[in-house]
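Fold this sequence, please.
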Amino acid sequence: MRDAEEFDALYAACAGRVVGHVYALTGNRAEAEDAVAEAFMRAWQRWRTVREADSPEAWVRRVASRIAVSSWRKTFNRIRAHRRAAVDQSLPGLSEDHVALLQALQRLSANERRAIVLHHLNDLSVADVAAEMQAPVGTVKTYLARGRRAMAGLLTDAHQEETSHG
């Protein structure tokens, strides 16, 4: 019974954060939810190993991220979604700033986007991001610097367009 209780506690504590992470990576809530559900299923199947990991949440987040980006179909859909401005601006609860942020994230490289999401949206330290991405700290710092610079330009451009049309 202890296994089920521990697993349920992990799910309750972090499922929403992991869905948010994968959503920020993919820009598609349904894909994010599917990937996270699959990741938790795999975590349960390997629970004795997962619960001993340094961070079971990081294990689930890493698996969910891989699931979301591994399939060629999902890659194709994401490219197509980028072309039609993947974020549906009519979704309730999404502010214009939120939509602009998601659109800017989607224009970054996959590594830059992942580093930005892990560091700024999941509040992981640079060292923790490096461990999760299996990359040197210096590389992660480069991804973060490039991602921030690109997003600053994209968000500034979006703001200038908005003020010139409004």
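The chain has a mean pLDDT of 84. The longest helix spans residues 137-165.
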